[in-house]
């Protein structure tokens, strides 16, 4: 039996987890409870839970807490979803953000799948997402990372953050290859700032980063990476 709780509102998802455990404990008072996290992934032990049972034929309740943070675990578990759903034991997954293709696979086999999302915060209306472009242009990794996290907390979508950073990158590349503002096709203010930022990067670095931004977009659309994670990794390598 498989239960799947996920989403960005960890307070509500964990509240639901405890409610579910209380209900299961009443139904299966002799069931043994186990917990496994991503850093504790043990494939052999996990697979024993699927068909195994404790002494006196007691059942298992297995809580998998953010196990998908371990890519090896995620890949193996998604291969065993049918077996989990048919198991006499209970598997409860509690995750944060999960990519759409994985959610679709799990929902096909889950006894119950529930998403918990935080409500948009008021700060989203006051955060200026264009502040990211200046920090990026200055190559101020620390400030860019701080602003990136503020943008996430404010409710900015990963696609919006990706788009604004990619726009700044392309503006710098255009300014670098143009003799004048008229030649660039950019607005004077944008051209002047981009020209100033160009001294912080080599042309080769900018071209490499441009290819990385394209890869992030397409790989996220294919479900191969999570865009927010990929953007943060890009910033930290700046």
Task: Identify the notable features of this structure and list them briefly.
five-stranded parallel β-sheet; Rossmann fold; 11% strand; Zinc Finger, Delta Prime, domain 3; alpha/beta; 238 residues
Please provide a written account of the structure.
By secondary structure, the chain is an alpha/beta fold. 57% of the residues lie in helices and 11% in strands. It is built from twelve helices and five strands. Helix 2 (43-51) links the parallel strand 2 and strand 3 (60-65). It is elongated. 22% of the residues are buried.
Give a nutshell description of this structure.
The chain is of the alpha/beta class and 238 residues long. The protein has twelve helices and five strands.
E-strand count: 5
Q: For the report, how would you describe the main beta sheet?
A: 5 strands, parallel
- In N-to-C order, the SSE pattern is EHEHEHHEHEHHHHHHH
Assigned CATH class of the largest domain: Mainly Alpha
Q: Return the structural class.
A: alpha/beta
Name given to the CATH architecture of the largest domain = Up-down Bundle
**Rg to the nearest angstrom?**
23 Å
Helical run tally: 12
Whole-number count of domains:
2
Poorly predicted regions: none
Helix content: 55-70%
CATH topology annotation of the largest domain: Zinc Finger, Delta Prime, domain 3
């Amino acid at each position: 039996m498989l239960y799947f709780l996920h989403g960005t509102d960890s307070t509500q998802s964990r509240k639901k987890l405890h409610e579910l455990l209380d209900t299961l404990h009443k139904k299966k008072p002799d069931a043994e409870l186990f917990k496994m996290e991503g850093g504790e992934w043990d494939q052999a032990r996990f697979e024993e839970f699927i068909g195994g049972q404790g002494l006196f034929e007691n059942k298992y309740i297995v809580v998998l807490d953010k196990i998908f943070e371990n890519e090896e675990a995620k890949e193996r578990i998604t291969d065993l979803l049918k077996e989990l759903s048919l198991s006499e034991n209970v598997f409860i997954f509690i995750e944060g953000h999960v990519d759409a293709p994985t959610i679709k696979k799990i929902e096909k086999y889950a006894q119950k799948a529930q998403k918990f999302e935080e409500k948009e915060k008021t700060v989203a209306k006051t955060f200026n997402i264009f502040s990211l472009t200046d920090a990026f242009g200055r190559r101020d990794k620390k400030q860019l990372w701080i602003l990136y996290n503020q943008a996430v907390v404010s409710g900015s979508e990963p696609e919006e953050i990706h788009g604004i950073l990619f726009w700044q990158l392309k503006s710098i590349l255009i300014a670098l290859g143009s003799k004048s503002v008229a030649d660039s096709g950019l607005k004077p203010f944008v051209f002047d700032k981009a020209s100033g930022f160009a001294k912080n990067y080599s042309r080769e670095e900018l071209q490499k980063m441009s290819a990385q931004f394209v890869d992030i977009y397409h790989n996220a659309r294919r479900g191969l990476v999570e865009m927010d994670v990929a953007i943060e990794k890009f910033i930290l390598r700046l």
